[in-house]
């Protein structure tokens, strides 16, 4: 992994974040008057004009953009229009709740999805394989919002076993985690199964078996490590799926995280909070994909060698 490759990846990552932030900035300001949306048409026009000047909304959009970018480089990401606090603080106080939900979901996704995919591959073309993949397809096909509402109707309204909103106890995690992990575990199960089947058909697996290596050892030391390499590539998409699924799930279960804050801020036209939340989400997704890319190159020597050759040709 060359320095040139790392620099190229970092440049593309920064460019991606800049494009996303710029797009959100322009769209939010072109979609309506924030002062009018927040306070309504009955407020004194002079007061509204004063607020526009105070928030910098009376200037042309290009001037607002330059001012916003300049403030970012100074560490100022704006203030919330609703309570006057720094947008950074407003978003960061919600972040631990989102991270806890995503962390628990990731653990259950890996513990269920990857073993299910391996188990299905080792029982290829059997009833067990078909049943496992049928469940995976079903889990992938059910929308998050539908599954969340269905769980609330069953476990909260009908049977009154679990709380339907909030995050105060471990019981509050159960339904949101099930809602998010169902689709994610299904993706990992299908992808791991395909990767395992491809590896199990490789000549070196047959050679190891012909040499008398026990089947369990072949699977543990040869098949699974090599099947894990392509599985790593979907980890970046997994983070993105968690973020998108988290926005929906947090609103269904009134989970006090960044996803719910983002929807509320968009509805209330709290521009600085929206921009800060989107910036955080974009940064996390780009960072996850960078880590995946570097990890993939580290795990697979062929990728490192190919990148080194390409860098050498470029020079």
Task: Provide a quick synopsis of the model.
The chain has 315 residues and is mainly α. The chain folds into two domains: 1-94 and 258-287 and 299-315, no CATH class; 101-256, MetI-like fold (Orthogonal Bundle). Helices cover 79% and strands 0% of the residues.
Q: In one word, what is the shape?
A: flat
- Low-confidence segments, given as residue ranges, are 311-315
| Proportion of helical residues | over 70%
Strand content: under 5%
What is the CATH-assigned architecture of the largest domain? Answer: Orthogonal Bundle
List the helices and strands and how they pair.
Blueprint: H1 3-30, H2 34-39, H3 45-55, H4 61-73, H5 87-92, H6 95-122, H7 127-141, H8 144-158, H9 171-200, H10 203-210, H11 215-232, H12 235-252, H13 258-267, H14 271-299, H15 301-314
Helix pairs in contact: 1-14, 6-7, 6-9, 6-12, 7-9, 8-9, 8-12, 9-11, 9-12, 12-13, 12-14, 13-14, 14-15
Key terms:
315 residues, mainly alpha, MetI-like fold, 79% helix, flat, disordered C terminus
Describe the 3D structure:
The structure is a single chain. The chain is mainly α. The protein has two domains: 1-94 and 258-287 and 299-315, no CATH class; 101-256, MetI-like fold, CATH 1.10.3720.10. It has helices spanning 3-30, 34-39, 45-55, 61-73, 87-92, 95-122, 127-141, 144-158, 171-200, 203-210, 215-232, 235-252, 258-267, 271-299, 301-314. Helix 8 packs across helix 9 and helix 8 packs across helix 12 (235-252). 29% of the residues are buried. Mean pLDDT is 86; it is low at 311-315.
């Amino acid at each position: 992994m060359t320095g040139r490759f790392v620099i190229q990846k970092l440049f593309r990552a920064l460019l991606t974040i800049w494009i996303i932030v710029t797009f959100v900035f322009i769209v939010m300001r072109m979609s309506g008057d924030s002062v009018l949306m927040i306070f309504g048409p009955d407020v004194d026009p002079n007061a509204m004009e004063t607020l526009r000047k105070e928030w910098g909304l009376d200037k042309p959009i290009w001037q607002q953009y330059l001012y916003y970018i300049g403030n970012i480089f100074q560490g100022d990401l704006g203030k919330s229009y609703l309570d006057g606090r720094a947008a950074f603080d407003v978003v960061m106080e919600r972040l631990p709740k989102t991270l806890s939900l995503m962390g628990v979901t990731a653990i259950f996704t890996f513990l269920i999805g990857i073993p299910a995919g391996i188990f299905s591959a080792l029982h290829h073309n059997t009833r067990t394989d078909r049943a496992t993949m049928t469940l995976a397809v079903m889990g992938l096909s059910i929308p998050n919002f539908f599954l969340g509402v269905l769980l609330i109707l069953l476990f909260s309204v009908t049977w009154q076993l679990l709380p339907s909103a909030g995050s105060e106890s471990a019981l509050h995690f159960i339904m949101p985690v099930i809602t998010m992990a169902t689709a994610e575990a299904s993706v990992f199960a299908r992808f791991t199964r395909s990767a395992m089947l491809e590896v199990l058909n490789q000549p070196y697996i047959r050679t190891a078996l012909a040499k008398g290596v026990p089947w369990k050892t072949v699977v543990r030391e040869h098949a699974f490590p090599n099947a894990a390499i392509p599985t790593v590539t979907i980890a970046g998409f997994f983070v993105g799926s968690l973020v998108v699924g988290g926005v929906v799930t947090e609103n269904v279960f009134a989970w006090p995280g960044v996803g719910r804050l983002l929807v509320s801020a968009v509805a209330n036209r709290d521009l600085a909070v929206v921009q800060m939340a989107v910036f955080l989400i974009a940064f996390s997704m780009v960072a996850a994909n960078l880590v995946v890319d570097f990890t993939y190159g580290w795990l697979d020597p062929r990728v490192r060698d190919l990148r080194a050759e390409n860098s050498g040709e470029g020079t």
